[in-house]
Amino acid sequence: MKSLHDRVIVKIDLQKKNFHTFSNGQQIRLERGWNNLNKRETQPVNAIVIWGQNIPEGSEILAHHNSVHPVNECFNFKSLSGELFASSEKVFSLPIAMCYLYKHNDKWLPLKGYATALRVFKTYEGRLSGIAPKLLKDTLYITSGKDKGYIFNTVRASDYQIIFQDINGQEGNVIRCRHFEDEENDREELIAKNYYLTDKLNDGKVWIGLTSTDAKPLVSCMAT
Questions:
Q1: 42: which of 32, 58, 71, 127 fits an S-S bond (Cβ 3.0–4.6 Å)?
Q2: pLDDT digits over 96-113, tens only?
Q3: Where in the sequence is the domain holding 177, given as residue range(s)?
């Protein structure tokens, strides 16, 4: 099978996200979707490339949580059989714009038009202890590409958090934003490089992370 222009043909296991593997190798099933209406958390996003736009065959990618909609599913590409009908693996033809990251040497790297990032938090500087840092809205610390290591101001709602099945069989999280290096694009989401906050980050006055509970100074993040 080969896809049309700007599309990627992938294979997605619809049940892959419904399992959790402990550090001892024991695996349990997680029933998602019954009491959680947030499809970003419940829908599968891990996909294996069958044929794609400059993406090697067999590569694992992370796609949009709505990519498994029937409008993208490929039907009648094989002779119908009970085994095919019962399988949890389905084939989809996805727009390239719905494909965000690919795995390389066990690390998730952004595809063209995207960057990975962490949220930015301002630390509490008062006398009380145990006060969580405060999220700085529309602000991201870039962790990939030429702009890695800098904090940017962004358009609203640009920090799309992907929840996926990581290589250890446990839930993984990564933030992606739209970013087009060295070219102009109407969908660019980084609007200004913030040197002031970047200096504050280097001084330990600003922290980075996914949430206020796991946010850390830059030195701690680099150590891990």
A1: 32
A2: 999 999 998 889 999 999
A3: 114-223
